[in-house]
Amino acid sequence: MVKPQDMTILVVDDEPDIIIYLRTLLEDAGFKVMTASDGEEALEKIKERKPDLISLDLIMPRKSGIRCYYELRKNKEWSKIKVIIVTAHARDDKVRKEMDELFSGATISGPQMYLEKPVHPQDYVNLIKRELGIELTEQIEVPRGPEGLREEVKKLLDRADKETLDAAMRFLKERKK
Asked: What is the model's pTM?
């Protein structure tokens, strides 16, 4: 039986707080996680180590998630990597048109699924487990609303390593400016 610890997920997003959040959710679920801040960096990471699944944002600097996705599908070795789109722009007209084209499979085989930000922890982890054929035995229970978010952030910070905490602090300091 496939287990999370046997799988590597590449999280690609240009927002450091989203990377920290998604990475922590996946690591807490037992997955190995790599991260990239745009499509260009993602392709470099894939050259180093092919992941089992990619969690891909669409709107990013340098190389967008859509351009990255097309390059993945054109590469024979990478074309079978499962991809889940995670975006806050699914309802934007321009992005919606590009997503419709991706999911229609008219020009290239489309991604498996997409989630709109903000993603709920249980939905995100369960979708990835389902796509990878991992049994959904554990349920992540996170109360929704401000109190639930505070509690989840506290739990994530309690388990975070120094690198993750440093990145979170840099992000928070930049947002105050």
From this structure: 0.69
